[in-house]
Predict the structure.
Amino acid sequence: MTDVRFLPVEKMNQAGFNELLAPYRFVNTKSNRDLTAVKIHPGEEGNSSYIPPSLVKMVVDALELPYRRTFLTDTTVLYGGRRMTAPDYVSLAWDHGFRMPDLPPFIVADGLAGTDEFRVALPPQCETKIARLAAALGRTDNAVMISHFKGHLLAGFGGSIKHLGMGWAAKAGKLYQHSSVMPYVKEDKCTFCKACIAVCGSSAIETLESTVRINEQKCTGCGDCIQRCPFGAIRVSWNQEAHSFISRMVEYALGASMATTIPVYVNFLINISPDCDCMKNEGPPIVNDIGVVACSDPVAIDQACLDLVTEAIPREGNAKAGTDKFLQIRPDRDGREQLRIGEEIGLGNIEYRLVKI
Ligand code: SF4
Ligand code: SF4
C-alpha cells in the first residue's frame, strides 16, 4: 500500500514542505546532470485559483532541485487566449509571477504552437495505441508533478491524473482526447482569410461562398488549424460524452508516466473551486483549504484527495460532509472513473495509507 503524505494547511511553510517531501528529495538520488521538469499550471488569464509561485518555490526548494538543470513547464491549449502559443504563454506565466531568479525558467513543453511532439506507444490494455505528448517530456530525465485538486467540467475533478494526461499532451493529443467532436468553424467569426487552409495537411478545410467548413471525413484532429486561425473562428465543442473523454485522458496519463521518471506527485488542496485553472471564473471554493499531499502514485494521491474533500464540511450549504461534492455539482461527470480506469490499466492503485505530518 502506498503512503500518501499529508501536510495540513496550517503547516504549509518551508519547514513543513521540507518534512513532507523528505522521502522524495533529489539530492544524492539523482544525477546533477539530470534535466528535471516541474509540471505546473500557471493559470489562465483572469483565473485566481492556480497554485501560486511562492508555493511552487517551496516545493522546488524542499526537493533540492538543481536550478540550472530544472525548468517549470506546461503545454499550450486548444482554445483562444494567452495559453495558445508559447510566446504569449511565457508572458502570461511571467505576469503570474513564475519567473527567474526566484524560480527556474518557465518553458513551454510542446513548442511554439503546440505541435512539437514526442510519441509513446501504449500497452495493449489501452484502446489508444499512441500517445502524442509534448516533445520536452521525451527529453527530460525526471518530472515533478505539481497539481491543483479541484472540480472539472469534463472530468468531474482534476488532480494528478488529469494533469498528467491532458497536461502533457501536445495539441494533437488534446484534440484526440476531446475527439468525440471535431473542430468546427464559427462562421460569424470567420473573415475568410483562408490561413487555415494552408496549414491543413489533410486537405480537410473546404471553401464555401464566404467562409470555410471542416470536412469531418478528412479531418485527423491534429489541431493545427485551431492555433493558426488569427480570429479564433475555429472552435472545439466541449460538451462531449464523459466516458470516452475520461478513458482517453487516463490512457494518456499512463503514456506520460511511461515517458519519464516521476518520483513524486504533489497535489494542493487549496482554493478547491468547482471549475479548473483554465477558467477565467473558476467559482468560489466549495470547502475550506485542506493542505497539500505528496505520493509516488498518481491514482492513490487522487483517491486520497477525493476522500479528503468528501470528508470536508462544505462552505456553502448545498452539499454535506461525507458526500462526493464534485458529483453533486455535476451528476453526469463521475470523476471516480479516472481512478477505476487508472487502476485497471496499471497507472496506479487506489489503496493508500494517509501519513499526517
Ligand atoms: S483562418 Fe480562421 S478566419 Fe481565416 S478562413 Fe480559416 S477559419 Fe476563417
Ligand atoms: S484539425 Fe488538422 S486535419 Fe482537421 S481541419 Fe484542422 S488542420 Fe485539418
Observations:
- The radius of gyration is 20 Å.
- The pocket of iron/sulfur cluster (ligand 2) is lined by residues 183, 199-200, 202, 204-205, 214, 219-225 (CB under 6 Å).
- Residues 210 and 223 are 22 Å apart (CA to CA).
- The mean pLDDT is 90.
